[in-house]
Amino acid sequence: EQLDLYLNNKTGRLATSGASSGLLSLPQLASTLYTSGTALQTNFVGPAEQYALIARGLATGEVAQELIIEGGISPQFSNDSTLLFRASTPGNFISVLGVLQHPFSRGSVHIRSRDATMHPEVDPRYLSHPADLQLLKIIALHLQAVAKTPPLSALLQGGGTVYQPGYHRLTAENVERWIRAAAQSEYHPCGTAAMLPRAKGGVVDERFRVYGVSNLRVVDASVFPLIPRANTQSLVYAIAERAAEFIKRAA
């Protein structure tokens, strides 16, 4: 039925995209909801150069965060991604999502055994850096404001004030609790074997060779020194082609 609607009239579910998205800078968001720069007032620790790059980009507007309007996504089930598209009640709903494209928190991946079949120990350490929580507060409250603003509000019941059961209006008092309960990954894991100088915590050199090990290269998203500004797949293709050239030259 849906295929017929699309083929004959270019209407129906197949005529829509998976999501509509836009990129907003921190100054755009902070000037609306908070005094500018409050999200950056924290003591950065750890990989100082990475933090400095991200902080500068956020402050100047060079780095953007993403706003996505999805249909049928239910963050209420964020602990189980298989339930992400299952609404808690019948009806027509949309989800307005915000993505922290450049988090400050850093996780880790470590092997636990010489047995290659044993899964590694993965600790994403979400929200371990205080700046991430502050940024997500700004984003979450802005998303709520977007839903109440024309022209989107004209398409929503109550002008964007009617919530699916299980959800509620976000305030300065409850937004942190909601973020901690509903936040989830954007599924762009990378950077656990970064291409950096060894003295700066790098794992591979500019030819993808692992420091301290002979004849071993790593060629995947783990070598990214920073989280990219878009989906990771295209960059994986690029580094794979580059690494293939190095491997052929060394053969």
Automatic annotation (TrEMBL):
What keywords appear on the UniProt entry? FAD, Flavoprotein, Oxidoreductase
The cofactors required by this protein are: FAD
Q: Which residues form the Glucose-methanol-choline oxidoreductase C-terminal domain?
A: 103-240
Q: Does the keyword Glycoprotein apply?
A: no
Tell me the SUPFAM superfamilies matching this sequence.
FAD-linked reductases, C-terminal domain, FAD/NAD(P)-binding domain
Specify the superkingdom: Eukaryota
Q: Which GO terms describe its molecular function?
A: flavin adenine dinucleotide binding; oxidoreductase activity, acting on CH-OH group of donors
* InterPro entries associated with the record: FAD/NAD-bd_sf (IPR036188), GMC_OxRdtase (IPR012132), GMC_OxRtase_C (IPR007867)
Family classification: Belongs to the GMC oxidoreductase family.
Q: What is this protein called?
A: Glucose-methanol-choline oxidoreductase C-terminal domain-containing protein
